[in-house]
Amino acid sequence: MSKQINVALIGNPNTGKTSVFNALTGLNQKVGNYPGITVEKKQGICKLPRGVKAHIIDLPGTYSLNASSLDENVVIELLLNKNDKDFPDIAVVVTDVENLKRNLLLFTQIKDLEIPTILVINMADRMSYKGITLDIEYLEEKLNTKIALISTRKKEGIDKLKLLISNYKDVSIEPCIDTTQIDVDYFGNLKKAFPNQLLYKLWLVITQDVNFGKTDRNEIDAVANFKTKSKADLKRLQQKETIKRYQFINNALDKGQTIDLSQAKDLRIKFDRILTHKVWGYVIFGFILLTIFQAIYDWSSIPMDFIDSAFASLSEWTKTQLPQGAFTSLLAEGIIPGLGGIVIFIPQIAFLFLFIAVLEESGYMSRVVFLMDRIMRRFGLSGKSVVPLISGTACAIPAIMATRNIESWKERLITILVTPFTTCSARLPVYLIIIALVIPEGRILGLSYQALTLMLLYLIGFGTAIISAYILNKILKIKSKTYFVIEMPNYKLPLLKNVVLTVIEKTKAFIFGAGKIILAISIVLWFLASYGPGEAFNDAENIVKKEFASENLSSEDLQQKIASHKLEHSFIGIAGHAIEPAIRPLGYDWKIGIAIVSSFAAREVFVGTLATIYSVGSDEEETIKNRMAGEVNPVLGGPLFTFASGISLLLFYAFAMQCMSTLAIVKKETNSWKWPILQLVIMSAFAYIVALIAFQFLK
Amino acid sequence: MQDTLAQLKRGERGIITDVSSIHIPLKLLEMGCLPGNFVELVQVAPFQDPMYLNINGSHLAIRKETASYILIEKMANE
Fold first, then answer.
1. A160, A297, A305, B67: which could form a disulfide with B5 (CB 3.0–4.6 Å)?
2. Residue in chain B lying closest to A208 (CA)
3. A273 at B interface, C-beta within 8 A
4. Residue A220: per-residue pLDDT
């Protein structure tokens, strides 16, 4: 077997690093997490010339080796730990030709770790447009590296890059700057104390909390003596270091790069004059949001209806085609309806991820952050909180992870705490089905009542998030430095390949993650609904026959009566009746109660649960919606899902904290149980009270 | 008194003369906010905050408060 080369792809955000990764690995990639933390780990395999294979890791984007977030920390931990199985044989630093100077800073840092490093200058197609010319040979000599000038958009230069990677042994590992020159006294002493260590590596360990391989632990502890320098002194040294690095870079670029400004066209300025305008900027942003909601509601309803009826027929087909028995009914009444409850909202999730991917890829998201920062700050949030709040409409989990680039801990904590109020896609199936049941069709000013209700629910979600942020900002006594830096990248036409890959990957992760829970819960529910203790369940047939002996029921009606009697006395029926007193004031029956309890694991389980409960004990092929419409209120008579109980249920789902995965991620990101538990208790109590008031007023 | 970046108006340019490094995040220094580099105010949000800058060819936005720790010398508009 030939040896695999470990390749680490490193680069600033917005340099097209992911496009390079996609170009190298194609579909040969897998996405996972770094052990113990929730930073996404992307890796893939690339075939190089002469039959060599490269194992490529796409490291999180970072501006420098001085990490300021968990994601960036991953980069430095890997590069400092020679024993890591992923430790690169070669580092590939990806830069953007338009931001070469700034991007090279990271390159010099990595090269100073004495790791073979090659330079990728991406977006070469923009050069003539920007009046840039590069003398590659000169730059290779000055920077002492190999350079691949590529364009992922035009698919140029990838082969050259592959060739350079396969010749990694020829790449120089000579550092760019002499660390001792930053401050001769300080680094001279450091060198005396640790003659065998790489000086720059020590310096990185001193200036930040790097938590790397056990083997090096003792050495770090010894270094601790050098931490005595005051913070201000260390920062001054870091500034000197940065200046030194820029001197080195300027020295290379002075002759290696020429920019003819008269040739440069700047679309950025033209776009930004409108998109970040004091008035038009906000109008356009509002318009974009409206389009997104319209798409979620309108465009995805066609595939959704199709999926709903397809699962109903599949369930029916299974029943008629397979031999009768426990397994068949588990399949037809438990697993298939349960899975249908999740597959049904693939279209919406895909749409959401599509929009978010396009907003991010095009560079527009940074403008939104810019526009919103001042407004969000009044509520104790940061402009960067807008990204989690928007992507929270897809799923709170990636949204909470997206808070990592918020610099101030207080702003970040508040964002984490309020993000679960935004209407995530797991709430959508619940909203959609209840809206369809209780809100009349019909239109006002060309907008349907149902779409307006949905829009209102989104607004309620955002509004609650913002108001609770305001309250938290007043209550929480956390002092933290508030600074804020965000790059405003160039506008780019999103690459179709990148967007499609992101949408597929995120949707897949979401479906499989939620799918497992839903599948497990629907199997458990089916058992609980199909078996029960004592005579009331096991002897149901005789009991019902006796009870209705005087009435001349058709055999079909009789079967129906038996089935519902069984369901009421099954394990699930007993449990449901036990909790009924608590939820009856909200207008729910015991079946909804079960669905609510089971959806504390994940909201989207609600529809699947009701589907499972209703299909146990029903023979006809019916969609979930029709079954729900047919339910009768046990106390009041009449349909169970009325306007009052429907609104109450909608509000309950708008506010309740019903998602184990979110709680788990909040625990991880805040490193304490205090915050997730507070979230669970406060949000659920609030949901109960609001739902109670709503039902009592409306009924 | 010397001008700070926070006093710059839209479209104006300057040269950074000094940064109070204790108040400035390292990330900003690394993005090119260093003495000697040129800076241009590209756009401001309402209330002049945050400020969208071009520093040494890097486009970025910072809050006004941070900008007040960066000393500059205004350049005459050509």
1. B67
2. B26
3. yes
4. 52
Q: Which of A243, A273, A482 shows the shortest C-beta gap to B34?
A: A243
Q: What is the pTM of this model?
A: 0.81
Residue of B nearest to A234 (CA): B22
Residue A688 pLDDT exceeds 90? yes
Indicate if the pLDDT at residue A478 is higher than 60.
yes
**A72-131 confidence digits (pLDDT tens):** 888 988 898 888 888 999 999 999 998 999 999 999 999 999 999 999 999 998 888 888
Instruction: Indicate the DSSP class of residue A65.
Output: S
Read off the pLDDT band of A215 (50, 70, 90): very low
User: Is residue A268 within 8 angstroms of chain B, CB to CB?
Assistant: yes
Q: Cβ separation of A370 and B59 shorter than 8 Å?
A: no
Query: What is the domain partition of chain A in residue ranges?
Result: 1-264, 280-475, 497-698
Q: CA A565, CA A555: separation in Å to the nearest integer?
A: 15
In chain B, the residue whose alpha carbon lies closest to the alpha carbon of A239 is: B29
Predicted local distance difference test score (pLDDT) of residue A212? 45
Contacts of B22 in chain A (CB under 8 A): 232, 235
Interior CA angle at A392 toward A683 and A511, to 5°? 100
Chosen for mutation from A243, A484, A491 (greatest number of chain B CBs closer than 10 Å) is: A484
Return d(Cα A25, Cα A5) in angstroms, integer.
14
How far A99 CA sits from the closest chain B CA (Å)?
7
Cβ distance B59 to A66 less than 8 Å, yes or no, reads: no
| B contacts of A383 (beta carbons < 8 Å) | 50
- Homologous superfamily (CATH) of A1-264 is P-loop containing nucleotide triphosphate hydrolases (3.40.50.300)
CATH number of the domain to which B57 belongs: 2.30.30.90
Tell me: the pLDDT tens digits for A149-195? 999 888 899 999 999 999 888 888 888 888 888 888 888 888 888 88
Percentage of chain B with pLDDT > 90? Answer: 50
A243 touching B, CB under 8 A? yes
DSSP string for A233-302: HHHHHHHHHHHHHHHHHHHHHHHHEEE-TTT---HHHHHHHHHT-TTHHHHHHHHHHHHHHHIIIIITHH
Can you give the residue range of the structural domain that contains B52?
3-75
Do B30 and A371 lie within an 8 Å CB cutoff? Answer: no
CA nearest to A243 within chain B: B34
**List of E strands, A406-488:** 443-444, 447-448, 485-487
Question: What residues of A are in contact with residue B46 (Cβ under 8 Å)?
Answer: 278, 374
pLDDT digits (tens, 9 = 90+) for A378-434: 998 999 998 889 888 877 877 888 888 788 889 999 999 999 999 887 888 788 888
Q: Does B57 touch chain A (CB under 8 A)?
A: yes
Q: How large is the ipTM?
A: 0.94
For chain A, positions 156-215, list CB contacts with chain B under 8 A.
none
The residue type of A627 is: R
Helix intervals (H) in A483-589: 496-530, 534-538, 540-547, 555-569, 571-583
Measured distance CA(A575)–CA(A219) in Å, rounded: 59
- Contact (Cβ atoms closer than 8 angstroms) between residue A84 and residue A213: yes
Number of domains in chain B: 1
pLDDT of residue A217: 46
